[in-house]
Amino acid sequence: DIVMTQAPLSVSVTPGESASISCRSSKSLLHSNGITYVYWYLQKPGKSPQLLIYRMSNLASGVPDRFSGSGSETDFTLKISRVEAEDVGIYYCGQLLENPYTFGAGTKLELK
Amino acid sequence: EVQLVETGGGLVQPGKSLKLTCATSGFTFSNAWMHWVRQSPEKQLEWVAQIKAKSNNYATYYAESVKGRFTISRDDSKSSVYLQMNSLKEEDTAIYYCTWGTGDYWGQGVMVTVSS
Prior knowledge:
heterodimer; A: mainly beta; seven-stranded mixed sheet; four-stranded antiparallel sheet; B: mainly beta; globular
């Protein structure tokens, strides 16, 4: 199975500042079709996860452009510019390249 | 508006069975690849099962941890997907989410507690 390793496990950010979350996969997530199958999800307190970024760098519908995704074949970054109170929650990376799909352990974002 | 509503959760003894239902609306269900994902009390997400569309022969896939015990199925006429869970173990205790495609939409989740 592909292992997804996130860091840090928690981050505390001052509103208005930026935050970055890293995710590393144990295998390349770059498919032969040129698509990198890494996804980012945010679970706000008491809510279901929601899709933020798909295929490494594409913003899901309705997601503010303060969020961005980037990376290579095995190393990925979610960046949040100008963190707001509504960004609090747990961020997960996931790989949908092959079954079984797998997720990182999650990064909890809190406000200072 | 896309909606996914899970039902069927509850408290069950180890070794018993439970069937979850996910009723959907607001999208073309018959073309959708559907999944069940669970979240442990420690907040870890674990993909459980997938069922593809009729055009993919309704192919199914399972996590190793549930293979042979859980069965995913669908009824396109009812826009619903199901998860039959047999021989339940305490480690199956989790919130179970129904999700579509690549996690574009998730249900509200249903709690399954396996305990004697």
